[in-house]
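User: Hi! I'm working on a homework problem where we have to compare a predicted structure to a textbook description. Could you give me the structure for the chain below?
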Amino acid sequence: MPHSLNVILGAAAASGAGVRRDRRRLAVLFLVPNLVMGVVGFAMGGYSSASFVVGILDRAHTSESRTLAAGLISNEQFRLRDYSSDERLRIAVFRGRMNAGIVIPPGWHGERNLPVYLSSASATAGIVRAGIDAELSAMARAGKPFDIGIRYPAGGHTGPPRVGFAYTAPANLVLFVLINGFVSAVTILQLRESGISRRLLATPRRTWELLAMLAVAPAQQMIALSVFMVLMTRLFFGVHWGDTLGLLLITAAVTCLGVAIVLLMGTVFRTRQQATSLGPWIGVGLGMLGGCMWPLEIVPPFMKTLAHLSPASWAMDAYLRLIFDHATLSEVAPDAVVVLAFAAVIAMAGVVRLRPQLSQ
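Assistant: Happy to help. Predicted C-alpha cells:
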C-alpha cells in the first residue's frame, strides 16, 4: 500500500508540474471563470444581490410623495436614491446604475400616474414596475405598505430573486468544473494514442491504482479551481458561501462528478480534437439545463422538470440554499447525495469501458 501511494502521489506531482508550466491552461483554469463570473454578475445586479436600486426625483414634496418614498423604503427589495435632476436620473437608468427612476411632478397628491423610467434591457424591469404599482395601489386604498412575494412561472421559490455575484459565483464554479471534466478527457486520449496505456497495463499494477493515477490529475485541478473561486469571490465580491461543512460536502460531490466525467468521456471521445472542441459545448449545455446560465425559477415548468436530468441543477440548488437561505449541512445533504449518485453511475460506466480501450 505505501508503494502504491507513492506512485499515485508521483503522478499527482508530475501532473501539477505540467499544468504550472502551461500558462494558457492556467489562464483558462483560473482567470476565465472569474472573468465570466464578474461580467455576468455585474449584468445580474452585482453587489445588490437582493435589492433593486430606484432613483426618485421628488418635485412635489407633499405628504403623499413622502408616503410613497417611505413605502418603497420599507420593503427590503428596494433601495432609494434621491435625485435633483431629471436628466441625471434618466442617464443613470440608461447606463444601468438604477433599476428604475420615478419622477414625482409638482402638486402630486397621489391622484395621477407617475412617469417611471425603466430599462427595457433589464430582466428585473417587470418586477420593479410591479412593486411600484402595488405601492401606488396601496396608497389609493389607504392600505399598509405593500409586502409582495415575487413568484416565478416554474414555482418553488418565492421572495427576492437570486441575482448578482451570489448567484453567478456558484454557477460558474459548477459550470467550469463540468467543462474541465470534459476537456480533461484529453489526458486519457493522450495515453491511448501514445501507447503508454498498454505499457501501464503490462506492469504489475492493480486496476484501482491505474484508475487513481488517471483521476488524480483532473481531481487536483478541480479542487484548486473550486478553492480559488470560493476564496476570490469571498474576498473581492463579498459572496458569503454559508455553512462551511455544507460547502465542503457539495464541492466534494461536484469534484467527484467532474472526475467521473473524465473517466467516461475518455472512452467516448475518439480524438483529442473532439475533447477540446466538443467538450466545452457539452459542459455548457449541461450547465444551461441545470441553471448555471439563468435561475430555474424563470423558466417554464417543463424545463424545470427537465433540469433534474442534469446534475448541475442539484449542485446549484445546494449552493443557492447555502448562500441565500442559510441552509445547514443536513439540509443540503440530499442534493449532494444525488450529485454523488450521478458521479457513481458515470464513473462505473467509464471504468467498464476504460480497461479494454486502454489495451488497444
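For your comparison, note the following. The chain has two domains: 2-44+162-358, 52-140. The first strand starts at residue 52 and ends at 58. Good luck with the assignment!
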